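Hi team,

Below is the intake form for Response regulator transcription factor from Antrihabitans stalactiti. Please confirm the fields before the structure is written into the shared record.

FORM ID: S-0412
PROTEIN: Response regulator transcription factor
ORGANISM: Antrihabitans stalactiti
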Amino acid sequence: MIRVLLVDDQPLIRSGFRALLDLEDDMEVVGEAADGTEGVALARQHLPDIALIDIQMPVVDGIEATRRIAADPTLAGVHVVILTNYGLDEYVFDALRAGAAGFLVKDIRPEDFLHAIRVAARGDALLAPAITRRLINRYVSQPFNRSTDTRLKELTTREREAVILVAAGLSNAEIADHMVISPLTAKTHVNRAMTKLHARDRAQLVVLAYEAGLVAPRNS
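The structure came back. Fields below:
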Protein backbone atom coordinates (compact mmCIF):
# COMPACT_ATOMS: atom_id res chain seq x y z
CA MET A 1 0.00 0.00 0.00
CA ILE A 2 1.38 3.41 -1.01
CA ARG A 3 0.76 5.91 1.78
CA VAL A 4 0.32 9.49 0.55
CA LEU A 5 0.36 12.80 2.43
CA LEU A 6 -1.30 15.77 0.70
CA VAL A 7 0.11 19.23 1.46
CA ASP A 8 -1.61 22.12 -0.35
CA ASP A 9 -3.25 25.31 0.87
CA GLN A 10 -6.18 24.86 -1.53
CA PRO A 11 -8.84 22.49 -0.14
CA LEU A 12 -10.29 21.89 -3.61
CA ILE A 13 -6.94 20.66 -4.92
CA ARG A 14 -6.50 18.34 -1.95
CA SER A 15 -10.03 17.00 -2.39
CA GLY A 16 -9.44 16.30 -6.06
CA PHE A 17 -6.25 14.36 -5.45
CA ARG A 18 -7.82 12.49 -2.53
CA ALA A 19 -10.76 11.45 -4.71
CA LEU A 20 -8.37 9.99 -7.28
CA LEU A 21 -6.21 8.20 -4.73
CA ASP A 22 -9.18 6.77 -2.81
CA LEU A 23 -10.25 4.89 -5.94
CA GLU A 24 -6.96 2.99 -6.12
CA ASP A 25 -6.57 -0.31 -4.27
CA ASP A 26 -2.85 0.20 -3.70
CA MET A 27 -2.96 3.76 -2.38
CA GLU A 28 -4.30 5.56 0.69
CA VAL A 29 -4.23 9.16 1.89
CA VAL A 30 -2.85 9.23 5.44
CA GLY A 31 -3.21 12.96 6.05
CA GLU A 32 -3.83 16.44 4.68
CA ALA A 33 -2.09 19.72 5.51
CA ALA A 34 -2.64 23.32 4.43
CA ASP A 35 0.94 24.56 4.88
CA GLY A 36 4.50 23.30 5.09
CA THR A 37 4.79 23.38 8.88
CA GLU A 38 1.73 21.20 9.31
CA GLY A 39 2.90 19.00 6.44
CA VAL A 40 6.27 18.26 8.04
CA ALA A 41 4.56 17.51 11.37
CA LEU A 42 2.17 15.08 9.69
CA ALA A 43 5.06 13.48 7.79
CA ARG A 44 6.73 12.75 11.12
CA GLN A 45 3.48 11.43 12.53
CA HIS A 46 2.42 9.18 9.64
CA LEU A 47 5.72 8.40 7.82
CA PRO A 48 4.11 8.36 4.34
CA ASP A 49 5.76 6.89 1.29
CA ILE A 50 4.91 10.01 -0.73
CA ALA A 51 4.52 13.61 0.42
CA LEU A 52 2.75 15.52 -2.35
CA ILE A 53 3.64 19.15 -1.57
CA ASP A 54 2.54 22.38 -3.25
CA ILE A 55 5.51 24.58 -4.04
CA GLN A 56 3.82 27.87 -3.07
CA MET A 57 2.04 27.99 0.29
CA PRO A 58 1.69 30.44 3.17
CA VAL A 59 3.67 30.15 6.44
CA VAL A 60 6.19 27.58 5.14
CA ASP A 61 6.41 26.93 1.39
CA GLY A 62 7.07 23.66 -0.39
CA ILE A 63 10.81 24.21 -0.78
CA GLU A 64 11.39 24.75 2.92
CA ALA A 65 9.07 21.85 3.81
CA THR A 66 11.07 19.64 1.44
CA ARG A 67 14.33 20.80 2.99
CA ARG A 68 13.08 19.97 6.49
CA ILE A 69 11.90 16.52 5.45
CA ALA A 70 15.18 15.77 3.66
CA ALA A 71 17.18 16.87 6.71
CA ASP A 72 15.29 14.60 9.12
CA PRO A 73 16.84 11.11 9.31
CA THR A 74 13.55 9.66 10.57
CA LEU A 75 11.94 10.71 7.27
CA ALA A 76 14.51 9.09 4.97
CA GLY A 77 11.80 6.89 3.44
CA VAL A 78 9.55 9.81 2.49
CA HIS A 79 9.68 10.74 -1.21
CA VAL A 80 8.68 14.35 -1.80
CA VAL A 81 6.86 15.16 -5.03
CA ILE A 82 6.44 18.88 -5.66
CA LEU A 83 3.22 20.29 -7.15
CA THR A 84 3.42 23.39 -9.32
CA ASN A 85 1.01 25.36 -11.49
CA TYR A 86 3.63 26.50 -13.95
CA GLY A 87 5.86 23.58 -14.90
CA LEU A 88 9.49 24.73 -15.05
CA ASP A 89 9.12 27.80 -12.86
CA GLU A 90 11.97 29.42 -10.97
CA TYR A 91 11.32 27.39 -7.81
CA VAL A 92 11.42 23.87 -9.21
CA PHE A 93 15.19 23.50 -9.36
CA ASP A 94 15.47 24.82 -5.80
CA ALA A 95 12.99 22.14 -4.73
CA LEU A 96 15.05 19.42 -6.40
CA ARG A 97 18.17 20.74 -4.72
CA ALA A 98 16.32 20.67 -1.41
CA GLY A 99 15.63 16.96 -1.85
CA ALA A 100 12.44 16.55 -3.90
CA ALA A 101 12.15 13.34 -5.93
CA GLY A 102 10.49 15.20 -8.78
CA PHE A 103 7.61 17.46 -9.65
CA LEU A 104 4.16 17.40 -11.20
CA VAL A 105 2.10 20.11 -12.86
CA LYS A 106 -1.37 20.41 -11.32
CA ASP A 107 -3.17 20.04 -14.66
CA ILE A 108 -1.67 16.57 -15.16
CA ARG A 109 -4.02 13.89 -16.49
CA PRO A 110 -5.41 11.59 -13.76
CA GLU A 111 -3.83 8.44 -15.21
CA ASP A 112 -0.44 10.17 -15.46
CA PHE A 113 -0.78 11.44 -11.90
CA LEU A 114 -1.40 7.95 -10.54
CA HIS A 115 1.48 6.52 -12.58
CA ALA A 116 3.76 9.25 -11.23
CA ILE A 117 2.86 8.41 -7.64
CA ARG A 118 3.78 4.77 -8.24
CA VAL A 119 7.06 5.75 -9.94
CA ALA A 120 8.05 8.00 -7.03
CA ALA A 121 7.09 5.33 -4.48
CA ARG A 122 9.55 2.94 -6.17
CA GLY A 123 12.29 5.49 -5.60
CA ASP A 124 12.62 6.55 -9.23
CA ALA A 125 12.95 10.21 -10.18
CA LEU A 126 10.07 11.99 -11.90
CA LEU A 127 12.36 13.62 -14.42
CA ALA A 128 11.99 12.76 -18.08
CA PRO A 129 15.18 13.31 -20.11
CA ALA A 130 13.75 16.24 -22.10
CA ILE A 131 12.49 17.93 -18.93
CA THR A 132 15.85 17.34 -17.25
CA ARG A 133 17.73 19.03 -20.08
CA ARG A 134 15.42 22.05 -20.08
CA LEU A 135 15.62 22.33 -16.32
CA ILE A 136 19.39 22.10 -16.17
CA ASN A 137 19.99 24.40 -19.13
CA ARG A 138 17.79 27.04 -17.56
CA TYR A 139 18.83 26.91 -13.93
CA VAL A 140 22.39 25.60 -13.60
CA SER A 141 24.27 28.86 -14.02
CA GLN A 142 27.43 27.63 -12.30
CA PRO A 143 27.78 23.98 -13.34
CA PHE A 144 30.78 23.02 -11.24
CA ASN A 145 30.18 22.39 -7.56
CA ARG A 146 33.63 21.82 -6.07
CA SER A 147 32.52 19.70 -3.11
CA THR A 148 30.57 17.41 -5.42
CA ASP A 149 33.44 17.35 -7.91
CA THR A 150 35.73 16.09 -5.12
CA ARG A 151 33.31 13.32 -4.16
CA LEU A 152 33.09 12.25 -7.79
CA LYS A 153 36.67 11.04 -7.52
CA GLU A 154 35.45 8.38 -5.09
CA LEU A 155 33.24 6.79 -7.75
CA THR A 156 34.39 3.71 -9.62
CA THR A 157 34.29 3.77 -13.42
CA ARG A 158 31.11 1.69 -13.42
CA GLU A 159 29.44 3.87 -10.78
CA ARG A 160 30.28 6.97 -12.78
CA GLU A 161 28.80 5.36 -15.90
CA ALA A 162 25.64 4.49 -13.97
CA VAL A 163 25.28 8.10 -12.78
CA ILE A 164 25.56 9.37 -16.35
CA LEU A 165 22.81 6.96 -17.42
CA VAL A 166 20.59 8.00 -14.50
CA ALA A 167 21.04 11.60 -15.61
CA ALA A 168 19.94 10.53 -19.10
CA GLY A 169 16.66 9.32 -17.58
CA LEU A 170 17.26 5.56 -17.71
CA SER A 171 15.70 3.15 -15.22
CA ASN A 172 17.76 0.48 -13.45
CA ALA A 173 16.58 -2.11 -15.97
CA GLU A 174 17.62 0.11 -18.88
CA ILE A 175 20.96 0.84 -17.21
CA ALA A 176 21.49 -2.92 -16.83
CA ASP A 177 20.82 -3.48 -20.54
CA HIS A 178 23.12 -0.63 -21.53
CA MET A 179 25.99 -1.76 -19.27
CA VAL A 180 25.36 -5.48 -19.93
CA ILE A 181 24.97 -6.28 -16.24
CA SER A 182 22.15 -7.59 -14.08
CA PRO A 183 19.43 -5.19 -12.81
CA LEU A 184 20.59 -5.93 -9.25
CA THR A 185 24.15 -4.90 -10.10
CA ALA A 186 22.87 -1.76 -11.81
CA LYS A 187 20.86 -0.89 -8.72
CA THR A 188 23.95 -1.50 -6.57
CA HIS A 189 26.06 0.87 -8.69
CA VAL A 190 23.38 3.57 -8.48
CA ASN A 191 22.90 3.16 -4.73
CA ARG A 192 26.63 3.27 -4.04
CA ALA A 193 26.97 6.42 -6.16
CA MET A 194 24.11 8.01 -4.23
CA THR A 195 25.83 7.17 -0.94
CA LYS A 196 29.21 8.53 -2.05
CA LEU A 197 27.68 11.74 -3.44
CA HIS A 198 25.36 12.16 -0.44
CA ALA A 199 22.34 12.16 -2.75
CA ARG A 200 18.97 11.54 -1.11
CA ASP A 201 17.45 9.99 -4.24
CA ARG A 202 17.82 9.66 -8.01
CA ALA A 203 16.52 13.17 -8.67
CA GLN A 204 19.22 14.68 -6.49
CA LEU A 205 21.76 12.41 -8.16
CA VAL A 206 20.78 13.96 -11.51
CA VAL A 207 21.18 17.48 -10.11
CA LEU A 208 24.60 16.66 -8.65
CA ALA A 209 25.75 15.08 -11.91
CA TYR A 210 25.02 18.28 -13.81
CA GLU A 211 26.31 20.61 -11.12
CA ALA A 212 29.62 18.76 -10.95
CA GLY A 213 30.01 18.77 -14.72
CA LEU A 214 29.85 14.98 -14.99
CA VAL A 215 27.06 15.47 -17.53
CA ALA A 216 27.06 18.50 -19.83
CA PRO A 217 23.78 20.32 -20.52
CA ARG A 218 22.56 20.00 -24.08
CA ASN A 219 20.02 22.08 -25.93
CA SER A 220 16.60 20.45 -25.99
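SUMMARY LINE: The beta strands are 2-7, 27-33, 50-54, 79-84, 102-105.

Thanks, M.
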